[in-house]
Amino acid sequence: MSDAVSSSTISVDVAVVGAGPAGLAAAVAAAEAGARVAVVDAGAQPGGQFWRHARETVQPEAADDQPDGHGHHGWSTYLDLRARFDAAQRAGRITYLPGLQVWMAEPGFTLHTTPAVASSGTVPATVTASRLVLCPGGYDRQLPVPGWELPGVMAAGGIQAFIKANGVLPGKRFVIAGTGPFLLPVAAGIAEAGGKVLAVLESSAPSAWLPHLAAASGVPGKALEGAEYAALFARHRIPYRTRSIVTEVLGSGRAEGVRTAKVDAEGRVRPGTGRAYTDVDVVGFGWGFTPQMELPVSLGVDTRIDADGSLVGVVDERQQSSVPGLFLAGEVTGVGGATLAVLEGLAAGAAAARPDSTTPVKQPAAITRHRRFAQAMHQAHPVPAAWPDWLTPDTTVCRCEEVTAGEITEARDNLGARDARSLKSFTRAGMGWCQGRVCGFAAACLGAGPGEAPDAGSLAGSAKRPLAAPVAIGELAALD
Amino acid sequence: MNFGNGPRGSDVLVMGAGVIGAATAYFAAQQGLSVTVLDKGLPAGGTSSACEGNILVSDKELGPELELTRYSLGVWHNDLAEHKKLWEFESKGGIIVASRESSLASLNRVMAVQQGFGVDVEELDQAALREAEPHISREALGGASYREDCQVQPMLVAAHLVRLATEAGARFIADTPVTAFLRSGPGRSVSGRDGGRVTGVRTPRGDFPAGAVVNCTGTWAGELAALAGVEVPVLPRRGFVMVTEPLPPMVHHKVYAAEYIDNVGSSDAGLQASPVVEGTPSGTILIGSTRERVGFDRTVSTAALGLLARNATALFPFLERVKAIRHYHGFRPYCPDHLPVIGHDDRAPGLWHAAGHEGAGIGLSAGTGKLLAQALAGLTPDMDLTPFAPARFGESGAHTSAHREEATA
After folding, report:
1. Residue A471: which of B43, B287, B323 has the nearest Cβ?
2. pTM of the shown model
């Protein structure tokens, strides 16, 4: 064994996985309630995807050393949490373990970690804790479409992360497509950074919000955000086309254009509405988010299907899952954005610090309100039921293993493969490098059959990843 | 045969659509029998989906096991030749590597005996070994090459054999667990051992009468046999397999360490592992495999992963920096004497078994299915099935209880 992989063991009261909005809040709340806390995060610095920012060279102790929050929502919340996080670290109540990914969580709880970036020189640590708060967040949900395997096609969130981390754009001329309010900040971020957004294509329609206005009105901040984006879109002349989709990414060797069309409420293409955009170099897709469920699933939490079709963990009013001592906060309890994630993180952290408290807990009203808003958002921006109709038999669904839609429907119809697990066995969809993180939802939909949504069993089969992150065999060899 | 009349009836009812049940159904349908296959879930839902797809000659004990292995190999190459592509049949060959003088000496002894029994095995000196596997450890002293060792994708074998059986007239019904046996004589569905001839099965979807009921339920075979009042001591033996990230071809054969052969036949309950490292057409490398008797415990064992990793890097040092992207485990169904149970159960007339193939079930499935189908059709099987007879466990099954206690202790 080389020295680089010898690891240390850290024992604490509360372990937190993730240092995004939920994880930061959970760590701060647990530490301030008196617990000894360890935070494991894949990022090099706190903030997660939502508050991803340029590399900090110094600890932001003085006000003018603070990282630039330009383009970030809730940046003051970040600065507040970050100050409390740093203070708890200095006071020795938080042990912060950045640059590490948990590859396995054992009941009870033990976290085995591995460097998130192989060459970073970060030393893996093993963390044991009597309570665990999982805040692993989520990632862009993707739906396949002909041509989506071409270089230049990115996840909408990937474009945003690229800009936030590097301060430069991954291309010049963009088309952003999918559904949900997240497409707006992505397009805005591109425009602010000097990129040209040729169009934002939203498969849903603003009128879809009408039935949900009552729920949405409980969260006025969101309406304000919407108004800001509207002004920004007008200023940068970004066309926002509703009930529109990309039907094909065009290009030889890399993305060079897209074909688009209008769709009806179910997502069926309206004949005669096709048009093409040429001279495109980046196409960004976002169909909502997939919560990162491998750790909760591996620890056996009860799950359910949320309004957006995602597999999420069931929690009580203290954010505790069906596994005693295991708390969940953020997207893994239902995709709902950063504000909700912070509220859930604060609740989970406080509860994890005082597990024996018998004081009855009432779920904070703000959490209830934001969850209601999130449900309304999901209902207004569904994954169109007819999306599989956009595929041709030779459309790649699993990019890692190059499995086509035709191979998947054949395995479904001829071999009886109707869930993500059996599709994986018979076609290798989801067996490659990403282990189904990208194609899992789409493959599960195709397995369920036309017009059917995948059930929790199928999605849990897809989220079941006994190695939650790739880990070097040399590191495993050190286990006894 | 003329049993099982009526819309749900058939000559043969196969319980279990793993690779053994699928092969049995396929060959029974080829014999012109009417066949119904039931599974409590989908095809290949049990051990068939949690193994390495081995068709091995190299690790077999001399005697009935080796004989069945070689018969089965012939069935794969001849009867099933036209379907090879469906299940990614690959004649990749196996290499056993010895890294110590003592294991090299035992390997040479085993080789000499195997050659006497007609096994295609060739000695490899250090240079030949390095030529066959350029990335093998410098510690490796020599080895043996088994050209007959092959590989299939076992889930595809089961699924396609079920499909081919249905194309030949068989019926497959998923999500249908068997809850009791139908028995002839008074009280038709008595499940006690004196219930008379087995004449079909009961399920939540209704009764399925059949002339013969075949128990191909793998690790669950003992449970199903108990429903008929007979004991078939099939026990689970857990195995972990690790899978790496896709790489350019680095490992060209199935490569085992010489200790592998010892562990296969062992009854030791503790955690054991011998390195079995092999490349796959998709570029991933499979690292197998542990053997431990822990019942149906599904808890991931860091000890098992550590042992696999150490053994694999000892064989192929380059693996140290390669990433594992997943692992899986399964439960090999085995009998105390390490032979499968194949044939009619005289203790419960009408009930047949084909289970307990341990880690060799994929390889032995083709031969098992063909032989059993011959017997079910009333023909004399190509190979004598007596060594595999269920009756070897005794009338009462009493002596097998001792094995069960030993196994769970």
Report:
1. B323
2. 0.89
